[in-house]
Amino acid sequence: MVPRRIFNDLGDQLVTKFFNLLIAFNRRAVSVAREWLAFQTIDGKPIPRKKIGNWLRILIVIYVVVVYIPLLPLLAGCYIVVFLYGYGGPIVCIGLALWRIVQRDYGSNDGDDTKANLTPALDLFYCLILCQGVLYMTWLWSHPPGGAFIIVTSRQDYNLPRKWGYIWLVDYLFDTRAKCWQDPASIQGSTMSRYAVDLIDSESWDDNLSGLRMLATFIRQEADVRSLLLPSRARIQKLINTLGWRASASREMREAAGCIVAHLASDIHLAQFPGAIRCISTLLQDEATLTYWWNCDQKQDHTHLRTGSRSTMHTWINILEKIMPKAREQEVNRQGDDDDDRQHKKHVVDVKGGGCNELILQGLTILERLASDQHNCMDICRNPSLLPRIMAPLCSNTLIQGAKTSAWADVVNGSFKVLYRLIRCPGWTGKCLRRDIATSEQGISNLESILDQSNEAGQELQMRAMEILTELALDSSTNLTMETKENLMKKQLEIFLDEESAAISKDLKATAGRTLTFLITNSKVNCSVVKDYFGHLTELLDAKNNTTYRMIAAQVLENICAHCDLDKECVKDTLLPQILTGIQSNKREPPEGADDQGDDEKTETKELQENFLSLTLVIYDNLISIDDFDDAIQKNGLGNGEFVVKLKTIVEENCKETVISLRIVKLCGQIAATMMMRSQYTEHFKNQGFAESLSKAKKIMSNLESCVLFAGTELRLKKIATPLLSEIEKELN
């Protein structure tokens, strides 16, 4: 009761209700007049509608002149009194209370002991008035125009569309205020994202749409809402079911739900959600696209009717939008609505398309992220209707012509991403799909054509085609022709080693290099194609080149050295010195936390160091003798134990529980064990205490090593898992 006494001095909604009654009375009067005129006749004929409209306008003008104009001064006076009482009263109370507390001239007691407590009592009284005024002003701030100001600035900050942004924010403000009235503790931890999630649980269509819109907007702005959605399986099931709705009015809801499901897809297991594949596959059906074209001009805007104080809030919002400085919004608009679309494409769909393709693109994105799980891959491939839809662009005889348009190229790119994930699935699932693609002459022809037509087909498609063809080439059961493999390898080398064409993107070059690395791991591939480019690859190791390209070149050279017959003198005189220079030039890492901005650069430097050490070990084991290696070390200024010191320093710098550090330490230990076959190096390693440094690293990394050993099913993890640090330590001792 106390809060209502403090804050309900204006009778809450009495003013608003009074105006609503006036409006309702006026509408009723017009309605009665219209009905009366409709039954009147002139010369026995009904009065035409046009004349009825004209007469109504005349009656309304007379009514306004007779009734409202005389009342205007009275209404204006009442509104001024109410405004001063509602908004000026608290300010006056706060001012008077402050003045009296500061002044404190309450008069004297005149020796009357009964007035001894008068001053403290007045102090307490004015403090209570001050607190009441402050609380009232705080409450008033959530009402027009204070609440409108908050809503206008919030919409600009969150870059929400005007169409529904204000409606949603007003709902959020009123809902939060109502909860606070009932139980102030209930709004603890309340956020807009939590409110949006609560709306999804509602049975109301409008509430569902509002919640989906807002969550999709947050996701496009890179917010992570997985922790709010993943714990509730029923909530995710509801989102998935929404994808399968076919009504034209549900298109916007499906798009928003698709955005949210794509955000969660990496953590979703299809087996836990009945009907999930059917709902997702509806996004790829042609009927969805046709429905859009037929109904694009018939979209319904599902918004709540605004009455009472909410209508007043929207009136204040419109006023503030016109008078507030637009600097903040202009800054947002400079980035443009296209920037919001770009974020949406990057984080939700990862494509350029939109319009009628939007649902298809979202469906492909969901499938791509679902396919990161092996069991999901099996469920997708087992569905007899879904897989043909995914493969449809690849097997289309109009793919190359269609890829010239961005909308079709986006669909093809999304389809290729899903296929690449599926064909990499271990076991029979991936093998069967690779065979299906390899036996499709049209599919292989399309992939080869995309590689050759670099100007017409986008570079994104070239990257996807390289990835798919590489996976097919690595599987001997696909029976891919040697000509296709050699053409693929030549194209990869051509793109990766191209230094003149500025049109080739860094991503395309990196993809060409990485897929080439995988392809060379297959010893059956004709190595003569790569050997001709040995010199160019060696030059890429130079420090003047891009770090990513240097890493990839080192990986390619490692596989060449492991699987191809090379000129040992060439390796000794050109490649090995370049590698040793790279190992020697790696600078000591700055202290941890010294500069967080260079984290990516530090990671790349460590990966490059790992690649150089791995390449050194392969060359030492497969191509050159101990004497040749010793000679190369001497020529590079690493003789007299300097190389041993460098290896020990690398081990000490990498005594951290990270996978890449574990790999580096193991490589240093393996190189040391090989070098200790020569007696002079044995002495150097003992003098430098290399074994002690390795033992220290083993203690720090033992837990990580056991985890890698357990999870070492991936090719890279297998290389890291063996040999064990304990085995290397035994060899050194």
UniProtKB/TrEMBL annotation:
Entry annotated with the keyword Membrane: yes
The entry's keywords: Membrane, Transmembrane, Transmembrane helix
InterPro entries attached to this UniProt entry: ARM-like (IPR011989), ARM-type_fold (IPR016024)
Membrane-crossing residue ranges in chain numbering: 55-76, 82-102, 123-141
Listed PANTHER family: ARM REPEAT SUPERFAMILY PROTEIN, CONDENSIN COMPLEX SUBUNIT 1 C-TERMINAL DOMAIN-CONTAINING PROTEIN
Listed name of the protein: Uncharacterized protein
Organism: Setaria italica (Foxtail millet)
